[in-house]
Amino acid sequence: MGHSYRAAGVSERFPIAVLVSGTGTNLQALLDTVHGREAEVVAVASSAARAPALERARALGIPTEVFARSGYEDRAARDAAMADWLAQRGVRLVVLAGYMELLGEAFLQRFPGAVINVHPSLLPAFPGVRAIEQALAYGVKVFGVTVHFVDAGVDSGPVILQRAVELPDASEPEEVLAALRPLEHALLPEAVRLFTRGALEPDAENPRRVAMRAVEG
Ligand code: GRF
């Protein structure tokens, strides 16, 4: 009675953080799948105080913090404060899930090779904001989703997973988004699973390529 030990095994789950700015459906997908299983979401950081994503974390008692750009002298100061908060929580993987800010080199160096992002296009096509609108404007007939490691560029890091969907008649962003959502919600947790298992490594011959290593479990 009354002891404060956590259930056996809980503390051994791989501690991850999720960075958000908006609705948080990708965060929810992580909370519904890997959280409490392969991984433990130990921190959710938002660039926006009103992001509905924060409520999703709070509902499960997950610590949240807002790191608004306006609250700091510059981006580097914001990044440093956020990195400190994440490091204090023992975070070993940082997942960007609809996080709408760029992260500087200094932040990335605090979590080397351990920051991943989900992007609603088949990179390297259509990086940056409004990817779906860019793809529609170009006139493509195949859309898709990419989960990739984050480097100092814009959506330019090594690709971990991609999935495509043919939408030859699409004309509205909402329609494409609705088709891409389920892909994002499957691929992001899958990439987290692979990472926590130690299954991802750079291909020796082409470090831009992420190789999948067979691992136990
Ligand atoms: C997703 O489409 C993601 O690919 C993009 O921003 C959106 C975030 O959606 N980078 P949500 O906040 O996870 O619902």
How is this structure best described in words?
With 217 residues, the chain is α/β, with parallel strands linked by helices. It has 6 helices and 9 strands, in the order βαβαβαβαβαββαββ. The chain has helices at residues 25-32, 52-58, 75-88, 105-110, 131-138, 173-196; strands spanning 14-20, 39-46, 64-66, 93-96, 115-119, 142-149, 159-166, 200-202, 210-212. A 7-stranded mixed β-sheet has the order 3-2-1-4-5-6-7. Helix 1 packs parallel to helix 6 (173-196). Bound molecules: 5-O-phosphono-beta-D-ribofuranosylamine. 5-O-phosphono-beta-D-ribofuranosylamine is lined by residues 22-26, 53, 97-98, 118-120, 184. 5-O-phosphono-beta-D-ribofuranosylamine binds at residues 22-26, 53, 97-98, 118-120, 184.
Helix and strand topology:
Blueprint: E1 14-20, H1 25-32, E2 39-46, H2 52-58, E3 64-66, H3 75-88, E4 93-96, H4 105-110, E5 115-119, H5 131-138, E6 142-149, E7 159-166, H6 173-196, E8 200-202, E9 210-212
Parallel strand pairs: 1-2, 1-4, 2-3, 4-5
Antiparallel strand pairs: 5-6, 6-7, 8-9
The chain binds 5-O-phosphono-beta-D-ribofuranosylamine.
